[in-house]
Description:
The protein is of the alpha+beta class. The protein has eight helices and six strands. Strands 1-2-4-3 form a four-stranded mixed sheet, with helices on one face. A two-stranded antiparallel sheet has the order 5-6. The chain is rod-shaped. The model has no long low-confidence stretch (mean pLDDT 83).
Amino acid sequence: MIRSMTGFARQECQGEWGTLVCEIRTVNHRFLEVSLRLPEDLRSLDSELRQLIATGLRRGKVDTSLYLKSSDTKAQLQELNLELLHQLHGRLNTVRSTLQADAPISALDVLRWPGLLKEAERDNSPLLVAAQSLVKKTLVELNEMRSREGSRIHELLEQRCIAITQQVALVKTKLPDISARQRERLLTRLATLPTPTDHDRLEQELVIFAHKMDVDEEMDRLGSHLVEIRSVISSDEPAGRRLDFLMQELNREANTLSSKSQDADTTRAAVEIKVIIEQMREQIQNVE
């Protein structure tokens, strides 16, 4: 089943490190183009997350963002730099001895000394594992949404395949009448000529004319392309590029049908088929 290239998904999870949010937004693009924004604590995952996204998506411009909202307990994770504190204490004793004064020491002033409080070393591995799992979960939600949109596109393409099939059937039913009318029209014109007509040569010319105006091959190829389109949109493989090619082939046959047309009904059918093909092409631009 085909999938749309447009979609959005958002997931979040919580842990002792806080709340982690993942958002993935995709739009149509000829190739897979991944943009990834990560908080500092997850920079080491850049390459792995890009590979993970590439396994879940084939085409499209992918904008992925992870946000880390730290928990309120993060401030409690700060610890004293005891080595620096001992150094400060020694310096203060030296100052007291030198000045021969016992000045009061404010603990708050000491705590404000640059570097005395430092972040406690944390094990980031649980956060890294959670980030990978969250991206996978977000990709699942995104692809479910893209598949739902793809189902809608599938229905629209199927409806347009039916519409083209109806136009092809209409032309086929009228081909004998069209040929008969063309033959009658040509004979009528020849009958007005002042010189006698070579009937054998006339029959040869009529055969040649009928062959040039014959659109049976175009009708058959249109039918074959429609069968292939239905096969492609029902497959689990990425369909966008294959469908692009089939649209070109359909349009080529429709143009040939139009150029060979010697009848208003056939011309109208060819124009209608080209309109339907253009509608299909617009839908296919968003197919993965």
